[in-house]
Description:
- By secondary structure, this protein is an alpha/beta fold.
- It has 2 domains: about 5-20 and about 235-434, UDP-n-acetylglucosamine1-carboxyvinyl-transferase, Chain (Alpha-beta prism); about 20-235, Enolpyruvate transferase domain (UDP-n-acetylglucosamine1-carboxyvinyl-transferase, Chain).
- About 30% of the residues lie in helices and about 25% in strands.
- It is built from 12 helices and 23 strands.
- It has helices at about 20-35, 45-60, 95-105, 125-135, 170-180, 195-205, 240-250, 270-275, 320-330, 350-360, 390-405, 425-430, and strands spanning about 5, 10-15, 35-40, 60-65, 70-75, 90, 110-115, 140, 150-155, 160-165, 185-190, 210-215, 215-220, 230-235, 255-265, 280-290, 295-300, 310, 335-340, 365-370, 370-375, 385, 410.
- The strands form 6 sheets. A 4-stranded mixed beta sheet has the order 2-15-17-16. A 4-stranded mixed beta sheet has the order 4-5-3-14, with helices on one face.
- Helix 7 runs parallel beside helix 11 (about 390-405) and helix 10 (about 350-360) runs parallel beside helix 11 (about 390-405).
- The two termini are about 25 Å apart.
- Bound molecules: shikimate-3-phosphate.
Amino acid sequence: MKQTIHPVKRLNGTVCVPGDKSISHRAVMFGAIASGDTRISHFLRSADCLSTVSCFRKLGIELEEDPAGETIIVHGRGLRGLREASEVLYTGNSATTTRLISGILAGQGFASTLDGDASIRKRPMKRIMTPLSLMGADIRSLHENGCVPLRIAPAVLHAIDYLSPTASAQVKSCVLLAGLYAEGTTTVTEPFLSRNHTELMLSGLGARVSSRKTENGYEASIAPEPELHGFDITIPGDISSAAYFLAAALIVPGSEVLIKNVGINPTRTGILQAAQRMGGDIRILNQKIQGGEMAADLLVRSSALTGIEVGAEMIPTLIDELPVLAVLAAYASGTTVIRHAAELRVKESDRIETTTNMLRAMGAHITPTPDGMVIEGGAPLHGAVTDSCLDHRIAMSAAVCALAAEGPTTIRDAECIDISYPSFYSDLSSLTEG
Ligand code: S3P
């Protein structure tokens, strides 16, 4: 599908973004291995989270979805209650599903095979195979290329103290989940703090999880648990989805947008800090706790932006927002430098390359580097025909960029937004009508 986006005079109004993707995945997974029922409200019904749902159905878990779609009940079967799947567990485009479920499957008494789409077949899985193997797991890449398909066979797990070379919540969560099934206390240390939804949710369920900063980085530990109990959770809105409206409101003159009920866990708010440092007028209102996480409304007004440098420590807190941050940088005056973000090369697409191509097609001055991008802001931007490269975040970033450019933009393969935000285009047009 192609989507054409026209420039707009201004954006105005209120928008509620769908539930957080990372938290939605975790709620289903942890609900499945808890005993009893888990009720998840404001669940993100996007292709990625539905991949998680489908894998757990194949593992013998019953899930009830209400017809309106935002509530899901997981009938958990306990830590050892999953059943051997009779077919391959297909994780679609979702690295979160693939990497987190691997930690759970490594501790089961049955074998599983995981596979995914063409993009997931290129994503690095050695980063989880290495620590899981150190724990005693029997995990193999069937094509011996460090990617899916993966075969995970039963094994007895023992705790490890793992120094992760990358700040990755998926690696950290995978190891912590395997740690639930291991003998002893499992510890993961990462160089910078990545999103901590796993730690927060598991400790909310009564698991013995602890986190601290050490001289080597940020440490999270878990002790094995005999039982987790089902829970009720209302998932806050996804800041990674809110980021598109935030960026759109900042760059389109005369805009004022209220984004309701957005998760503002400090491990995710790098985009707020970066945009505020650029001069963005963003107010954080009505702070509250929802689903064990901080949430708030964001009031955003268009602003004159200036370029910034984004440092290493901040990268994990806005990793998924870097394409849209590059869009902000293209509309800012001065230079924006993004470094220490080589992880972008192994996302749904090589986001250094795909962000560069998308912004260049629209006239921006952007130079890719091995681990980031340098954007010289202020060049006049024009509409273009641009490719999503089947990457949802590239499609949504292009749509935002198009709103303040000269002339229309056509996004090819625009339906890939279904991965994280199926109603994105209609929510965007609700702010531009009139
Ligand atoms: C996620 C962690 C991040 C992020 C991804 C979701 C998660 O990946 O990019 O979209 O839910 O744990 P990494 O852990 O690979 O950095």
